[in-house]
Amino acid sequence: xxxxxxxxxxxxxxxxxxxxxxxxxxxxxxxxxxxxxxxxxxxxxxxxxxxxxxxxxxxxxxxxxxxxxxxxxxxxxxxxxxxxxxxxxxxxxxxxxxxxxxxxxxxxxxxxxxxxxxxxxxxxxxxxxxxxxxxxxxxxxxxxxxxxxxxxxxxxxxxxxxxxxxxxxxxxxxxxxxxxxxxxxxxxxxxxxxxxxxxxxxxxxxxxxxxxxxxx
Amino acid sequence: xxxxxxxxxxxxxxxxxxxxxxxxxxxxxxxxxxxxxxxxxxxxxxxxxxxxxxxxxxxxxxxxxxxxxxxxxxxxxxxxxxxxxxxxxxxxxxxxxxxxxxxxxxxxxxxxxxxxxxxxxxxxxxxxxxxxxxxxxxxxxxxxxxxxxxxxxxxxxxxxxxxxxxxxxxxxxxxxxxxxxxxxxxxxxxxxxxxxxxxxxxxxxxxxxxxxxxxx
Amino acid sequence: xxxxxxxxxxxxxxxxxxxxxxxxxxxxxxxxxxxxxxxxxxxxxxxxxxxxxxxxxxxxxxxxxxxxxxxxxxxxxxxxxxxxxxxxxxxxxxxxxxxxxxxxxxxxxxxxxxxxxxxxxxxxxxxxxxxxxxxxxxxxxxxxxxxxxxxxxxxxxxxxxxxxxxxxxxxxxxxxxxxxxxxxxxxxxxxxxxxxxxxxxxxxxxxxxxxxxxxx
Amino acid sequence: xxxxxxxxxxxxxxxxxxxxxxxxxxxxxxxxxxxxxxxxxxxxxxxxxxxxxxxxxxxxxxxxxxxxxxxxxxxxxxxxxxxxxxxxxxxxxxxxxxxxxxxxxxxxxxxxxxxxxxxxxxxxxxxxxxxxxxxxxxxxxxxxxxxxxxxxxxxxxxxxxxxxxxxxxxxxxxxxxxxxxxxxxxxxxxxxxxxxxxxxxxxxxxxxxxxxxxxx
Lengths: 216, 216, 216, 216
Description:
The structure is a homotetramer. Chain A is mainly α. Chain A is built from 9 helices and no strands.
């Protein structure tokens, strides 16, 4: 009876498939992180205490695994939050989303790098690469948001303000601070990782404060 | 006609995407377990009997694989059962669910540890780590349930009793018994693993008895 | 208006989440098969012809990969066909489905075994394990079908006949022929693999002939 | 009230599950590509500059990773575009889709081959295998489209023209140009990879121009 109806439901299905596909990439990237946790190699006189020691020595792996897991989780929550504001999809949005997914799948690589090199003199390089990955991810988020806002036809009614606020978060908070984390890595690996972790907590608190958005 | 309707359906979609995302993590974690089954290395005079022997020697891997697979499966069934009681999602529920998923993706690591060290003197450490993982998982389930119950706004009508019963199962059965399994590991690896397996059977029987819940 | 409606749609959602979860396991198991295709190790004087030769020598891997991929694909199609006949889910169906998924995730392991040992004297053992896996998978399918048929409450109207026919296919064709393939492996690896491949073609043709079922 | 309705919705669910399953395979294949990015092995005197050098030397890996990621992404977008034109599924469509998914899961293998051998004399073979994979993928797309068009019963109203145009793109542009890329590999690895990349850009621009199709 309403000729606009079929069109609408087709659009929703469109967003749905893109979200489901992105969810797949996010969940696999999070799960593949575990492959970086290596079982200590059997060697020499194996005892319970020795295995404890070996496992304890791997703490950079556990730290990197946990940080990366929650970072990707928060990225997913943000992705989720963005697509709740999106009504239609066009090709540019599809490709900026693709760029973001590319960077999401990359995350296990710098994570493994930090886990392997955190206790070596090369830690600065590993931390700089790790923080640098998040610089690119912040840019990708910004581009995705700009692609969604462009022209105003793709967003749901009244979402432009929220999208603009998120663009500012990306380019005025995320990009410069992750860049700072990358640049301080040669001086202090801990400051570099600390900034990354602090930003993770910051994004979390941000979504906790905007909590009602998740219940709407 | 009913102004409350669009809101409701948006909420349902919300829960739907979280469930789909969690399903992705559960199914990938279950499938990655197979990567711990290693093909015996080609070496020396290879015969059919030799390969049989090599495969037979890997029984701790098969045992760990099967136990972990069914444990994660039952965790998924429980997760499924919990989210049938949940109507809305807020940020805290999102993060406690994230903590649970973190632990689900970790499961392949202690599984591989048990598979590698079950026949060595370090078995006690491996079994303690394995049981310890399930202590944390039980706590994560409890926190998820508490986050869902908190305030009472997130649950479907009349679900509070069932949620409270499940919280008690977590903190009064799951946590202390898995803790016991971790603590007895230095005395007997078999008792430790036996408790883990018995709990797996217990949770299964629990869901079999509550079977009608799955049909509703 | 219709008090039975909400119940019905809740049931459908239930089946939907189980199907989505199973789809996840099937698609991941199929994709993990590619990890068995190994890039030849760089060594000695590397030339284009040498790499061609190395890649050509890996033909058992390609053969095993393709066979296993299509076998899992057909298993998915069958799974799909079965769940189109299922209206409700109970705990036993959930666990028999879990057993089937366990065996689906295992498939990459015997596949890698065949790929590694097909050209060695241990091929008979590898082929027997490969065929043996499919014996267990056939039994798991049969149990799943029996669990679905049991009591008659879980199936859609008029599906009992089709389910019984599929049970017979499992126990009277699948199980004995895969068992035969496992038993002849010591005499001829090729006959063993040939029976597995022939059964794959047979199940395919079966679904092609029942084609209209997929269009309904 | 409308006896045709239940049938229709059953059909839509059918397409939905096939799309969800395919999405799973696409997203996993894209995510597994990251496993080819290897952390440099700890060895000798490790310094920040040394790690920079090691990471820089891996550029063929990053190049192959990025190209393959976007190629699979565009394949997914095309798959998505095709199934928007499909109304019903039959067994032949199911199997041609299976052939396409087989090739999608294979992509990480030639990608790793190019990454490992691009700087060796065997690069020609690696590039020819890489381009050859896309020849087969183009053929698989063409077969999928032919299976969808066959008989005309499976498409939505008015989609035959669009499907025929896509068939022509596959067989008259994709297949011959990827074949050319495979054949020129012995003369120039760069020309071979350049053709593959140019085609990736071409398919992208094609979907950008047909942008409105994604919004409909």
